[in-house]
Task: inverse folding
């Protein structure tokens, strides 16, 4: 069956696939709306701790390791799942992901101990999320070689939107019935939705490029054009099947390490703020709990907007120019937080929005950036390897922020470190443009 499905994908003509790719993109967005709920862990953690506390001496902090395991499993599966995706195509990968993600969510409703929850939510959901997100994001970039930034931006936007809608849905179920019912019902629904999506997704034909653009595409492939502010996505897509690199070849290139450092530095700054947004709002400018909660919502909104807008900008200005704009905005936002005075909510919100927008934009641009530099054929694996930088940032950023505040009782030193890292990212864009653009 697997070989039949893979063969069917390869026998599609460019024209046939072009007619289907918008439907595939919409289906992929639905699946990412589901797996993005993995970041709603904070909604589940306290009720689940209370559920365990009925029979055990368990508090919410005792469950913090669950989400750490989820993040690790997700990153690992983006790499290994990418290998499977490149060989079998997205249908099988997404189907397996639906079983792991939906099944893990459902089984979490029957967890009787933190160890069991670590397996159901931490391991199963993490593996399922890594499979589905990594596969569909890479497939979207491959399916839109004429506008990969836009396609990647749309996919990551819906992934981010999940953290806006899912907490509301989960809270309603938890308050109306119970935490166990919330896990079980959401698990069933998500399994069905993602499994349905697996029947609709399909990989593009080899060397795919839309027929409507093939003539101009052919002309561009003869003479690679580079803008004075960075490479453009459309001009490079003509060559990316001639310059496909495997992950082993990729990690031998200097471009990989420059891109790794840029992602690490920018994600560090974003995740550091996102992880502590509520206490920062309360301690830095004196917000109440409700005001801080609103600030977190604003941050999530601009994170989502950044994912959507940057994709369109990237396809028009090029990756390097877009990243330069992103990092400049993040730097201004961090400077605002460094010098903000208590009660100055306007400066605080401006800084928060710029950082949230920049972080979301980085997540949107990087999948297409990876495909541009190393080719589309192995992008599932290559981006998974590059994404390790994000996981490292996810561990270091929040920990350094917490450690600095515990030591000095102020946040500014952490903001200064983040600003320095963003400056490093900005400097790398200049190096990258001069040597590799």
Result:
């Amino acid at each position: 069956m697997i070989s039949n499905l893979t063969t069917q994908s390869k026998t599609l003509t460019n024209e046939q696939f072009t007619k289907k790719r918008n439907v595939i993109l919409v289906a992929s967005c639905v699946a990412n709306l589901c797996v993005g709920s993995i970041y709603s862990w904070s909604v589940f953690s306290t009720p689940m701790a209370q559920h365990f506390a009925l029979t055990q001496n368990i508090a919410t902090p005792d469950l913090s390791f669950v989400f750490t395991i989820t993040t690790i499993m997700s990153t690992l599966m983006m790499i290994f799942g990418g290998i499977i995706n490149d060989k079998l195509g997205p249908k099988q990968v997404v189907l397996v992901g639906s079983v792991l993600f939906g099944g893990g969510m459902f089984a979490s409703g029957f967890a009787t101990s933190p160890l069991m929850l670590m397996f159901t939510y931490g391991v199963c959901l993490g593996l399922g999320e890594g499979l589905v997100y990594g596969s569909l994001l890479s497939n979207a970039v491959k399916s839109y070689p004429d506008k990969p930034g836009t396609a990647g931006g749309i996919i990551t936007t819906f992934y981010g939107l999940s953290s806006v809608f899912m907490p509301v849905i989960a809270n309603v179920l938890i308050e109306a019935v119970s935490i166990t019912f919330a896990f079980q019902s959401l698990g069933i629904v998500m399994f069905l939705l993602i499994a349905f999506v697996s029947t609709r997704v399909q990989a593009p034909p080899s060397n795919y490029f839309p027929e409507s653009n093939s003539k101009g595409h052919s002309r561009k492939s003869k003479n690679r054009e580079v803008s004075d502010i960075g490479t453009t996505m459309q001009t490079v897509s003509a060559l990316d099947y001639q310059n496909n690199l495997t992950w082993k070849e990729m990690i031998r290139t200097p471009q990989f390490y420059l891109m790794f450092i840029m992602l690490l530095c920018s994600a560090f700054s974003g995740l550091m703020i996102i992880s502590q947004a509520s206490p920062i709002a309360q301690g830095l400018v004196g917000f109440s709990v409700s005001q801080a909660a609103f600030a977190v919502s604003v941050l999530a909104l601009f994170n989502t907007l950044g994912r959507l807008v940057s994709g369109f900008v990237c396809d028009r200005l090029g990756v390097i120019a877009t990243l330069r704009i992103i990092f400049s905005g993040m730097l201004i936002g961090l400077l605002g937080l460094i010098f903000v005075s208590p009660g100055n909510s306007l400066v605080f919100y401006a800084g928060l929005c710029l950082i949230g927008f920049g972080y979301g934009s980085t997540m949107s641009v990087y999948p297409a950036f990876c495909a541009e530099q190393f080719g589309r054929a192995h992008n599932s694996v290559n981006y998974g390897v590059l994404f390790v930088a994000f996981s490292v940032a996810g561990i270091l950023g929040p920990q350094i922020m917490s450690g600095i505040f515990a030591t000095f009782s102020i946040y500014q030193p952490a903001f200064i470190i983040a600003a320095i890292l963003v400056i490093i990212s900005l400097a790398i864009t200049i190096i990258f443009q001069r040597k590799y653009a």
Remarks:
- The chain has 19 helices and no strands.
- The CA atoms of residues 245 and 374 lie 5 Å apart.
